Amino acid sequence: MKAERLELAALASVAGPRATPEEINTYAYLADFAAVCEQVARVPEEVRQERVQALRAIVARPVDVEAMRAAFWLRAPLAARMVAVMSAKLPKERAGDTLNKFDALERGLIWVALERLMADLAQVQKCMQGGAMPTTSSRAH
Questions:
Q1: 58-78: string of b/e by CB count within 10 Å (b at 16+)?
Q2: Is the whole model's pTM more than 0.70, yes or no?
């Protein structure tokens, strides 16, 4: 048995490693992908940005984008919308409003307030790591 393993090891070192067809296909795909990435990297960033903006203009009209935002707003839980508007010091009743009832200034206020809130919440979340495991008597509360 040991002799067979030694022979197989010797054959493998001479013949080199064998790749499955899936591995060969993956190597080819990754080589193609790397070539495309290099090609994209050679295009100046300003040109890439112009191309992206042109594509956005073709694919998504502003009316469509606003309709998508409005749909996402209404699908968000009411509690989340309340936190959003209250973080900007707007009345919590505004959470029930449709998105088109918020002007650009109000949206900006909410955006900035949420950015701050998310940063604060991330910090609070980090504080919640660890701690002692509860005993069965302390869980009864």
A1: eeeeeeeeeeeeeeebeeeee
A2: no
